[in-house]
Amino acid sequence: MRYRSTRGELTANAPNFSDILLAGLAGDGGLYMPETWPKISAQTLREWRSLSYPDLAAEVMAPFTAGAIDRDTLRGMCRDAYAGFDHAAVAPLCEVEEGLFALELFHGPTLAFKDMAMQLLGRLFDHVLTERNRHVTIVGATSGDTGSAAIEACRGRDRLSVVILHPKGRTSDVQRRQMTTILDENILNIAVEGDFDTCQDLVKGMFADKEFRDEVSLSAVNSINWARIAAQIPYYVRAALALGAPDREVSFAVPTGNFGNVLAAWAARQMGLPIKRLCVGSNRNDILTRFLLDNDMSMRAVEPSLSPSMDIQVSSNFERLLFEMLDRNPTRCAAIMREFRETGRMAVPHDAWTRMKEVFDGMTLDDTQTSVAMREFYSESLYLADPHTAIGLAAGKRFKEAGIPMVAAATAHPAKFPDAVFAATGIRAELPPHLADLFEREERYTTMSSEISGLQAAVRAHIRRN
Ligand SMILES: Cc1ncc(COP(=O)(O)O)c(C=O)c1O
Ligand SMILES: N[C@@H](CCOP(=O)(O)O)C(=O)O
Ranges for the Threonine synthase N-terminal domain (predicted)? Predict the structure, then answer.
């Protein structure tokens, strides 16, 4: 499998999976996409019903890694990656109401769906870097969950230096401490004066600085890296198979911020999984739902909410969907993205918007509605949802159709957001034993302004130290 950028033509020496894993973002600022969509036949899907989660993950991902990583090696890494999850099914389904399911993606070490990809990515990085005898520097932006999952997956790995930027004061205390109490030498946490979009912009700014990018061998763990998306596709396949696919359609509702998770579901659909609808749940930072309702993709200031991991306005992976809806025309895609950057408004052609609407729905919940959703799912179904999951479940409930199972992505454990969960339900969600002393651990992080040159200097100094 070869890859191309959303902003550039397919080249003769197009990169393979290992190349794009290390590159993160394409040199032209675009996002990597597979050259073609691998197709899974109905018969193959039926045969996959009996596979364990790790073996299924390897089968789903194998076409994307073809030509770079052999299937047996990949299977071994998948088995290793998911061995530490605290549920035998890895990503279990729980029926919350008739026809409405929660797909629990928070059974990994840092209690959010990010572990589903990141536990594998840590191993993939190690494998490829050892093979190539290289070292890379990962600079990641987080609104709370990517950071801790990346740190957990990459800590202590000799060939990786990791710098994570989080927006100062805008994550939950549990989320911050999950990052800042990891004291391994190769990890640096920086609290940036700004919001998540500021952090993500800084990461993209570092990639755009070619000299810096080459000097530090910059790489990415955010969902701008295609490897993240690829590793998030298998759980949609697993859930759909459990509910009758390929002989029955299934819909998904996904609490959305950077658009990576729902894009993985869309990729599964492109590969042949019978997905009827994809429902995007937003908090008050609702650029995506405004877009889906009125083709209004206009930036507003990022507002703090009860679901801080979704406090995002620039949803990076939307570019991948746009590229597809523009029939993979990189020139048009680049022009629209450039205009969005310059004006804060994305002019999506009407026909592209209409095609997106054939699959996607959107729903916004403000904080009050999010609390009500948490309270009702608990009182009516005894399902304790974190604020992000509650938004997904509420969107799923709204768009559920008779006879078609609706699966909401349960993206975080309620103990990551104990105050919001307690205020809504009166229940104090406990951290699992491996995190029970989180609030007694030493924290280490630096606070910095959003000035890029200062951050680049901090990255250089971090690499020199380890
Ligand atoms: C708990 C949680 N839910 C939902 C989201 C949104 O997912 P995505 O950014 O893939 O749209 C995030 C952040 O990515 C998250 O951490
Ligand atoms: N919600 C995320 C934001 C970054 O998203 P990513 O999927 O692009 O890494 C977070 O928790 O950090």
Answer: 2-82
Give the ligand at the shortest distance from the Cα of 321.
1
114 is a catalytic site residue: yes
> What is the rounded CA–CA span in Å between residue 197 and residue 257?
11
CA of 302 to the centre of ligand 2 (A): 15
Structural domains of the chain sorted by starting position, each given as residue range(s) with its CATH number in brackets: 88-108+228-425 (3.40.50.1100)
Interface TM-score (ipTM) > 0.95: yes
pLDDT digit string (tens) for 66-108?
999 999 999 999 999 999 999 999 999 999 999 999 999 999 9
391: Cβ contacts below 8 Å, ≥ 6 apart: 255, 281, 282, 283, 307, 310, 365, 370, 373
Q: Is the CB of 257 under 6 A from ligand 2?
A: yes
What is the rounded CA–CA span in Å between residue 444 and residue 143?
18
Among residues 114, 204, 400, 416, which one is catalytic? 114
In angstroms, what is the C-alpha Rg of the chain? 20
Characterize the bridge pairing of strands 275-282 and 360-364.
parallel
